[in-house]
Amino acid sequence: xxxxxxxxxxxxxxxxxxxxxxxxxxxxxxxxxxxxxxxxxxxxxxxxxxxxxxxxxxxxxxxxxxxxxxxxxxxxxxxxxxxxxxxxxxxxxxxxxxxxxxxxxxxxxxxxxxxxxxxxxxxxxxxxxxxxxxxxxxxxxxxxxxxxxxxxxxxxxxxxxxxxxxxxxxxxxxxxxxxxxxxxxxxxxxxxxxxxxxxxxxxxxxxxxxxxxxxxxxxxxxxxxxxxxxxxxxxxxxxxxxxxxxxxx
Length: 249
Prior knowledge:
With 249 residues, this protein is mostly helical. It is 83% helix and 0% strand. The chain has 8 helices and no strands. The protein has helices at 3-27, 32-62, 64-90, 109-135, 140-163, 168-192, 198-228, 232-247. Helix 1 packs antiparallel against helix 4 (109-135) and helix 2 (32-62) packs antiparallel against helix 7 (198-228). It is globular, with a radius of gyration of 17 Å. The protein starts with a helix and ends with a helix. The model has no long low-confidence stretch (mean pLDDT 83).
């Protein structure tokens, strides 16, 4: 199988976890505390992947200066885009409760939520493709992190969409489309940077890492804390430890 196609399939697999989560939310009444607990666990898994897969790899291949610059750029760009989407009704796109506005309450919020979900997923997908460039194979711990975090993300957000009155066509159209874009992003991440220097690859990896960490703090942990409260830190730490152990498997 061509490596570029392999990159696309790994990205599709990671994005497909969003669809799995949405399917669960649509057909099974999952208690909010369960959703929040898995969200907290997924946050810890992603934090570990950012630290020990993305940032460590970026520093090793491109040096500290390029890595730090890329990381800050990724964080700032994600923050700016997230703030713009929040003003259009996508602030609570990962919330499973009644915080997501309906289209009647805020016109254009459906599109903003869809774009926001896409914004959250692209950095994760890109790094799966980059992993094939730097390591020759996809990082198991990074793939696990993306998959484990995407299931509760799709579950929580789809539950909120359903509560706000959005149709099954809209919900599954959003998550199915994002899964396809995730595969395409991973493919393009590999294809576009195939001949790039280690410094460039390191910088792009760090950009994704900064965006992912900012996304965790801005959208995932607030949803987790809203229902798990004092248990959030422990559950997140368990997710971190699990991903850390996978990275040494």
